[in-house]
Automatic annotation (TrEMBL):
Lineage per the UniProt record: Eukaryota, Metazoa, Ecdysozoa, Arthropoda, Hexapoda
The keyword Transmembrane helix appears for this protein: no
One GO term describing the cellular component: mitochondrion
Top-level taxon of origin: Eukaryota
UniProt KW keywords: GTP-binding, Nucleotide-binding, Ribosome biogenesis
Domain Obg: 39-194
HAMAP family for this protein: GTPase_Obg
Family the entry assigns: Belongs to the TRAFAC class OBG-HflX-like GTPase superfamily. OBG GTPase family.
Gene Ontology terms for molecular function: GTP binding; GTPase activity; magnesium ion binding
InterPro entries documented for this protein: G_OBG, GTP-bd, GTP-bd_Obg/CgtA, GTP1_OBG_dom, GTP1_OBG_dom_sf, OBG_GTPase, P-loop_NTPase, Small_GTP-bd
Pfam families for the chain: GTP1_OBG, MMR_HSR1
Protein name: Mitochondrial ribosome-associated GTPase 2
Amino acid sequence: MFNKTLTTLKILKSACKFSQNVAKPLRSKKPKSSTTSVQNFVDFKHLRVVGGKGGDGCISFLSLWANEFAGPDGGDGGNGGHVIFEATENVKDLNNVPSVVRAQNGEFGANTDCHGKNASHCMIKVPVGTVIKDSTGKVVGDLSEKGLMFVAARGGSGGKGNRFFASDTQQSPQICEYGAQGEDLEYTVEIKSMAHVGLIGFPNAGKSTLLRAISRARPKVAPYPFTTLKPHVGMIQYDDYEQIAVADLPGLIPDSHKNKGLGIQFLKHAERCMVLLYIIDMSQAEPWINLATLQNELLQFNDDLNQRPQIVVANKIDLPEAEENLKVFKKNVSLPVISISAKLGTNIEELLKEIKIIYDKKSKEK
Ligand SMILES: Nc1nc2c(ncn2[C@@H]2O[C@H](COP(=O)(O)OP(=O)(O)OP(=O)(O)O)[C@@H](O)[C@H]2O)c(=O)[nH]1
Ligand SMILES: [Mg+2]
């Protein structure tokens, strides 16, 4: 009898598990890095690209013991290298892209018809999904697939040596060409999608604390506003081998969409996230006003942003004044609210599960 009830209980339990069917978030087995430098995520860069200069041609005349005036023998210069962007899966951000990129120059031509060597091209590796805009803001390249390339600046061609100018009428030309200058252009490169989930909130709401709690990323945490000035990305691991990228974005303030505070540039990061997580500090009075302000900022910037899946995270519930605020907050907010304490780790697992559910739903839609 006892055995029978035990088996029915077991079956019920597994049925319950099956109905939930959400992958469990995993704790990272690897400790956090102990290096002092912390890398931020670069999703936008303005850069200058300069193609290599072509090598100059050569003026030279061959003189042999039996033939003193054997004719012109100056070789051509080599071509300068191009600057090329190449999409690859091996890099995740634009950290490795320098602000000025110069390709190598072609070699000069030499006597005895020796042509200068062509310079090798300068390849810049960028992540798949990089969009390239010219100085007027027009999209000129979209590297949406692995291996796609965009020639950003062409190198100059090599100059002709005096051998090239020899003819029946001009047997000893004293002229050659200089190598052409490479193109000198400016571009803006942007990554289309930065992370699956973006953390949005006022300064000091606890965004960086939350990212530290759920991933191996190490953004700076401090009790003053604007600690985070550049975005950081961390990965959450799940037991179905899925990884979800979460971006800690710098804090927003009222009128950010008018370029106040850290400005529009930081709202642009939010555009590159699939799911938005509003982090609201529950220890402050009337937190629902903060949420409404944040939503309004996003709406003013781009009304598509409010159509994205959103979760409201009520943070700092460990503080004494948070309990009362949370009760009223839940009544005033229509979105799903998850209350957590990023500092103590309370309810973090529930939040991670909710993120996974939304992520799975979104991935199926694609
Ligand atoms: N008690 C309590 N304190 C918290 C919690 N989460 C964050 N804090 C504290 O709040 C302060 C600000 O935290 P940060 O994570 O730096 O806040 P932020 O949102 O990243 O701030 P900015 O980078 O300036 O936008 C720190 O002193 C944290 O220790 C929490 O759940 N409970
Ligand atoms: Mg921060």
